[in-house]
């Protein structure tokens, strides 16, 4: 009996291209670090909110969803920040796109399809490719993949880099097959994260130190300085709302797909499957140490690689989790990134 093909995702292939050892840790040994990355958590909250918004266009429902996704916001500073930002962002998004020219065809659309050898047209017996797109929309009679992104800022560099988003290009190919509709391009729906922080106010000591400094500089020996109080939730929301009134905080970019790119990417994907099979057969997943700090922070497996896979580290700082979690769709549950 032949084994069922392994369900692979583009995240896995992309990681394999970047660092084979990371694929071994994540997809073969199925390890993920305990705790989660805050930025990615915020991204997953916004993805859920956008899904809810585009489903029923009911802002009250979206705001209630944010409340549910940040249940500990009164005690947990990170959740409070996510809650404030998501609330302001989604309120402004609903106003900005109150009249929207896109028509939703599908949301959170999963697909699964063969990986084909471009030389023979035969499907791989070892792997299938699965994935999920944020949505499929119709604009002016043509179909586009909808891709939500939260970004620190949108500038020329950011938009230029969208071209290198191979994942979505190849997903478009699979969506065409799964849904039987031609896909014209990708609609990137970009939401910018405001950098504003809620004012913390001063401690009594900080106030006294500042006051003493002002008095020392004052010619009259007096100062009207008052202790700075923490910014209230209402004040912070008002400041965020003002920021989000700026049209530049939202951007939609349409990219048209090139059929030549499809062909290149499909053949690259096939090459990756062959390299993976070879690595697995020989049990060799080499490290690419040039990738360890690729995202301006250490790779989640840095401690493991540095200690040559110390079992104590695995026990205390990692947990086992099935791969491809990004494919699961659970109501009201934030999805963890695969890596
Ligand atoms: S720490 Fe570096 S070598 Fe190890 S898995 Fe991560 S990127 Fe690869």
- The residue-averaged pLDDT reads 88
Distance between the termini: 32 Å
Largest sheet: 6 strands, mixed
Number of helices: 12
Please give the share of residues in helix. Answer: 40-55%
CATH T-level topology:
Lambda Exonuclease, Chain A
The proportion of residues in beta strands is 15-25%
What do you see in this structure?
Helix 3 (38-56) packs antiparallel against helix 4 (59-69). This protein has one domain (6-197, 233-327): Lambda Exonuclease, Chain A (Alpha-Beta Complex). With 339 residues, it is α/β, with parallel strands linked by helices. It starts with 5 loop residues before the first strand and ends in a 19-residue tail after the last strand. The strands form 2 sheets. Strands 1, 3, 4, 5, 6 and 7 form a 6-stranded mixed β-sheet that branches. Helix content is 44%, strand content 20%. 25% of the residues are buried. The radius of gyration is 24 Å and the shape is globular. Strand 4 (123-139) and strand 5 (142-151) form a beta hairpin. The longest helix has 24 residues, at 259-282. Iron/sulfur cluster binds at residues 19, 21-22, 25, 287-289, 291-292, 299, 301-302, 305. The site of iron/sulfur cluster has 13 residues, from helix 2 and helix 11.
């Amino acid at each position: 009996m032949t084994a069922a093909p392994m369900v692979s995702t583009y995240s896995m292939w992309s990681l394999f291209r970047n660092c084979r050892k990371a694929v071994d840790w994540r997809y073969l040994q199925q390890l993920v670090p305990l705790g989660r990355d805050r930025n990615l958590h915020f991204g997953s909250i916004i993805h859920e909110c956008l899904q809810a918004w585009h489903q029923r266009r009911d802002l009250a429902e979206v705001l209630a969803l944010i409340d549910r996704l940040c249940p500990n916001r009164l005690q947990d500073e990170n959740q409070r920040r996510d809650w404030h930002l998501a609330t302001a962002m989604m309120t402004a998004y609903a106003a900005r796109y109150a009249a929207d020219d896109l028509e939703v065809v599908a949301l959170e659309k999963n697909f699964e399809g063969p990986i084909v050898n471009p030389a023979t047209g035969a499907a791989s017996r070892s792997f299938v490719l699965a994935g999920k797109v944020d949505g499929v929309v119709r604009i002016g009679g043509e179909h586009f993949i909808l891709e939500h992104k939260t970004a620190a800022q949108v500038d020329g560099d950011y938009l230029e880099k969208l071209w290198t988003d191979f994942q979505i290009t190849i997903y478009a190919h699979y969506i065409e097959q799964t849904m039987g509709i031609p896909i014209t391009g990708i609609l990137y729906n970009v939401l910018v994260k405001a950098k504003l922080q809620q004012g913390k106010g001063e401690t009594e000591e900080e106030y006294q130190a500042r006051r003493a400094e002002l008095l020392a500089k004052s010619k009259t020996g007096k100062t009207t300085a008052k202790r700075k109080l923490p910014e209230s939730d209402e004040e912070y929301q008002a400041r965020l709302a003002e920021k989000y009134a700026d049209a530049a905080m939202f951007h939609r970019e349409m990219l048209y797909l090139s059929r030549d790119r499809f062909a290149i990417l499909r053949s690259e994907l096939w090459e990756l499957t062959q390299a993976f099979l070879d690595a697995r057969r020989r049990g060799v997943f080499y490290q690419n140490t040039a990738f360890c700090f690729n995202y301006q922070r250490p790779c989640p497996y840095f401690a493991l690689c540095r200690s040559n896979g110390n079992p104590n580290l695995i026990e205390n700082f990692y947990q086992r989790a099935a791969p491809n979690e990004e494919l699961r769709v659970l109501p009201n549950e934030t999805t963890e990134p695969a890596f």
